């Protein structure tokens, strides 16, 4: 959390911090999401790039650690804030909560071709897509297209851009994206 705050305070993207520190973007993303720890060498490189000493970084991290909040939000069938991700429309669960660590969204996928979909969707961090009904063709410029049927899922880097297509007819998916989609990402 402290690394992200320091990076954003400088107005840097993950790519810029990676360039300044020599730490790969994928590693930085996982560290900022709390999914990975850094070894000493990478910590030192980040401290140099962010112009903070190791003690200062640890102190900032300790100050930013949040206590368990006990939050809860129930979303009944058909409820939730309306949301669009690319051409897919759906409902966001827990839309009443602010500053979420992740955002679950049920989406109706109907675009059958990349042309009908339009530009690739991008987000910060990582995401998980689970097909609930129908069949989805998942496109990402890093991998070959992937056909997913009901019950199949894929965990991916949302920053790399993706398309969700339904060439055989409408499909319904659960997308769990890191961060708070309602906050205007």
Walkthrough of the structure:
The protein has 185 residues and is of the alpha+beta class. 27% of the residues lie in helices and 30% in strands. It has six helices and nine strands, in the order αααααβββαββββββ. The protein has a six-stranded antiparallel β-sheet with strand order 1-2-3-9-4-7, with no helix packed on it. The longest helix is centred in the first third of the chain and has 11 residues. The chain is globular and about 55 Å long.
Short description:
The protein is α+β, with helices and mostly antiparallel strands. It is built from six helices and nine strands; from the N terminus they run αααααβββαββββββ. It has helices at residues 2-9, 14-21, 25-32, 40-50, 54-64, 114-117, and strands at 81-85, 88-92, 102-109, 126-133, 135-140, 143-149, 153-157, 162-165, 171-178.
Offer a few descriptive terms.
three-stranded antiparallel β-sheet; 185 residues; alpha+beta; six-stranded antiparallel β-sheet; 6 helices
* Biggest beta sheet summary: 6 strands, antiparallel
Give helix and strand order, one letter per element, not per position: HHHHHEEEHEEEEEE
How many helix segments? 6
- Measured between the Cα atoms of the first and last residue, the distance is 18 Å
Q: What's the gyration radius in Å?
A: 18 Å
Measured as a percent range, the helix fraction is 25-40%
Q: How much strand?
A: 25-35%
Strand order within the widest beta sheet: 1-2-3-9-4-7
Helix vs. strand class: alpha+beta
Q: How many extended strands?
A: 9
* Overall pLDDT metric: 86
> What ranges have pLDDT less than 50 throughout 5 or more consecutive residues?
none
Shape: globular
């Amino acid at each position: 959390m402290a690394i992200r705050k320091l990076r954003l305070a400088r107005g840097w993207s993950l790519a810029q911090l990676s360039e300044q520190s020599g730490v790969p973007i994928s590693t930085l993303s996982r560290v900022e999401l709390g999914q990975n720890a850094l070894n000493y060498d990478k910590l030192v490189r980040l401290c140099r790039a962010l112009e903070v000493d190791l003690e200062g970084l640890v102190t900032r991290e300790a100050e930013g650690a949040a206590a368990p909040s006990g939050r809860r939000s129930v979303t009944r069938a058909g409820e939730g804030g309306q949301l669009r991700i690319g051409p897919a429309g759906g409902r966001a669960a827990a839309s009443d909560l602010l500053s979420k660590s992740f955002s679950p969204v049920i989406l109706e996928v109907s675009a059958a071709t990349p042309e009908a979909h339009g530009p690739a969707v991008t987000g910060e961090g990582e995401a998980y897509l689970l097909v609930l009904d129908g069949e989805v063709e998942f496109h990402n410029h890093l991998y070959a297209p992937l056909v997913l049927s009901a019950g199949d899922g894929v965990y991916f880097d949302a920053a790399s851009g993706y398309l969700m297509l339904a060439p055989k007819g409408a499909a319904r998916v659960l997308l769990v994206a890191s961060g708070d989609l309602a906050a205007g990402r």
